[in-house]
Amino acid sequence: MRAVCRAFFCASAASFLEFRGLTKQPVRNTSSRLTYPSMDTALLVSGLIFSAIGIGYFVYGRRQDNMAARWSGLALVLYPYLMTDVYTMVAVGISLMLLPRFVDL
Question: I need a surface site. Which of 1, 26, 35, 100 has the fewest CB within 10 A?
Answer without folding.
Answer: 1
